Amino acid sequence: MSRNEKRILILAGVFALTFGIVPNVSAMHIMEGYLPGGFCIAWGVLCIPFLAAGFLSIKKTLNEHRNLITLLAMSGAFVFVISSLKIPSVTGSCSHMTGTGLGAILFGPSAVSILGLIVLLFQAILLAHGGLTTIGANTFSMAIAGPFVSYGIYILCKKLNVNKKAAVFLAAALGDLFTYCVTAGQMALAHHADTTVMGALGKFLAVFAPTQVPLAIIEGIITAVIVMGLESYAKPELRALGFLKEAK
């Protein structure tokens, strides 16, 4: 056996050991039965103030600019479609894009909490993607934590005079990655009997990383392309949001 062949076998062994001991999860959405009842309730309660703020934000936006309802619906549809496309990962799990960065950039992160909740309900009921008992945990990770990071990154990039397309890309990509980090943290808090919380967190992160990192990059590119398209075909709506003047 040549030296290169030995190296390949060693690397393959390390890879198998690394991922072979990772706890099994069904998807980036946490499925039914994976969280204890107390955790399900706690995450649900934690979402309530964000959802209330989101409802008020959407109500205010539509009261002032009724014509934005189409763009808002499109943002929600984008979240539904792109987060329903699950890509296989290791140990039987899967990863997916979130699509929440677009709505966070356009309407703010609070509004996306409502869009995300609606999407997660439809996915749990119609696609068996996620679950009703875990709706609070999934809402917090995908519809609250991720969008707030996306919005924060976008605002920071604006203040630093970063190119707008690059800002949109970074906001969408990093928001996606943070969503999966929060999901891994939620699972680690609930399942760390044979290790520490940090140890479990590392294992859960390893489950998604091989597919989630490239997916986050793809989501950033797609979101930037969509924003470019909106600048050409939805100028009145973007002006109403105060977004178009940022593109000049």
Detailed description of the structure:
- Helix 5 (109-126) packs antiparallel against helix 6 (135-159) and helix 6 (135-159) packs antiparallel against helix 7 (164-190).
- The longest helix has 37 residues, at 197-233.
- 76% of the residues lie in helices and 2% in strands.
- Strand 1 (87-88) and strand 2 form a beta hairpin.
- It has a two-stranded antiparallel ribbon.
- It is mainly alpha-helical.
- The chain is built from ten helices and two strands.
- The chain is globular and about 55 Å long.
Radius of gyration, CA atoms, in whole angstroms: 19 Å
Structure annotation, total helices: 10
Q: Largest sheet at a glance?
A: 2 strands, antiparallel
Q: In which order are the strands of the major sheet placed?
A: 1-2
Strand tally: 2
Helix content: over 70%
The rounded distance between the terminal residues' Cα atoms is 62 Å
Coarse structural class: mainly alpha
Element-by-element helix/strand order? HHHEEHHHHHHH
Mean pLDDT: 81
Principal-axis shape equals globular
Helix and strand layout, with pairings?
Layout: H1 3-20, H2 37-64, H3 69-84, E1 87-88, E2 94-95, H4 100-107, H5 109-126, H6 135-159, H7 164-190, H8 197-233, H9 235-241, H10 244-247
Antiparallel strand pairs: 1-2
Helix pairs in contact: 2-5, 2-6, 3-4, 3-5, 4-5, 4-6, 4-7, 5-6, 6-7, 7-8
